[in-house]
Write a structure and sequence with these properties.
Layout: E1 8-13, E2 20-24, H1 25-38, H2 44-54, E3 58-61, H3 72-77, E4 84-88, E5 93-97, H4 98-104, H5 108-118
Antiparallel strand pairs: 1-2, 1-3, 2-5, 4-5
């Protein structure tokens, strides 16, 4: 996840699931720019949506060994205990409680149907 000179990471709760999402700072910056570009800052509802998107974000610093400390309040919000799963999602990493991830994944039939629907003919 670390790019040249990118020792800061951004941690936030996922929008839809009970997991944490970890971004390199440079990619988070691009994500914020993209969201901001789609919302009108003079529209109250859209401003509230943007505020919720950026509120509760935690900037983390990696130590000299590349380790980070995830604040306990985030672990509690995502109900993460001793068994943790990391899921690489191309531009970010999701951090899950092992049991939450297992119950959140779609079943194999639904997965195959989704592959056919969204990927097979594209």
């Amino acid at each position: 996840m670390q790019t040249a000179g990118d020792s800061q990471l951004v941690l936030r709760m996922d929008t839809y699931k009970d997991c944490l999402v970890l971004y390199p700072y440079s990619l988070w910056d691009k994500e914020v720019d993209e969201v901001r570009s789609k919302l009108n800052k003079w529209d109250e509802e859209e401003q509230e949506l943007f505020r919720m998107f950026v509120t509760g974000v935690e900037i983390l610093e990696m130590d000299a060994s590349g380790r980070i400390l995830i604040p306990k309040r985030y672990l509690q919000k995502a109900q993460i205990g001793n068994e943790v799963k990391f899921v690489g999602m191309i531009d970010n990493i999701e951090i899950w409680s092992r049991s939450k991830l297992e119950t959140s994944l779609m079943d194999e039939d639904k997965f195959r149907a989704g592959v056919r629907k969204f990927l097979a003919n594209k």
